Amino acid sequence: MMEEPEKLIGGLKVSLSLFENARGILAVEDNKPDCIAKLKRLTRDENKIVVKALKTKYPQGSERQLIYATTGRAIHSAMLPSDVGCVVNNVDTVIAIYNAVIEGKPLMHRIVTVTGDAIADPCNFKVRIGTNYHELVDEAGGFKEPPVKIISGGPMMGFGIFDLDVPTTKTSSALLCLTRDEVSAMEPSACINCGKCVEVCPGRVVPRKLADYAEHFEEEAFVNNNGMECCECGCCSYVCPAKRPLTQVIKSMRKIQLAKKKK
Ligand code: SF4
Ligand code: SF4
Q1: Which residues pair with residue 151 across a beta bridge?
Q2: Mean pLDDT value of segment 39-47
Q3: What is the mean pLDDT of the chain?
Q4: Topology of the domain covering 109-178
């Protein structure tokens, strides 16, 4: 039976066959040398596929960052990757393409990471879509301590959930169960104008200002100051010494603006 890395190359070749002059780039952060070596070995006879080791940093995996890091082309929030001749897919999607086109199998599984200091035996699972989160927690040995915070998704971009009786979906990626909620234990205070949020922002916006506009519901100012360029990475909230919930308020305002655009 074909293993996942071979399926990844197979799925990429299916995608490349749709575009005459396209080439495929397998982008992997440089803290995974085994993975890079294996992919290089598997693609040594593929003249349309290259493996690119990227600097390990956050955020590196979002569409905009990946396109820039691999091709030097830049896009903003009003553009699609196709506007600069790119298609960005994650590993799971490329494998799903292989399964669908070559093996005739629909997407039925996801890789879900169950982790956090509340979990007895953190692991990655290949699960059928629809499997309940509580079944995954049981399979990971259950809770060694009661969790105080449960996050669906990663620590920076995931969202809190209150109930484990929730099915996994095709977008589920991780379940993070924490014994301490350090974020809600911190009282936000006034901005001290340190500029740290600006320094770390990959969207090149001014998070402090955008959060002010969002909090005061100044929609026009939010949009005019490029609020839609935020990729919701969470870096500004993470570094803010005043513990302002910058990402959360910017994210809410972005949602409102996106919903308005759809109307
Ligand atoms: S979440 Fe904050 S740091 Fe990240 S892109 Fe948005 S404003 Fe910038
Ligand atoms: S990091 Fe926080 S305190 Fe510093 S400028 Fe930004 S919002 Fe203000």
Answers
A1: 160, 176
A2: 96
A3: 94
A4: Ubiquitin-like (UB roll) (3.10.20)
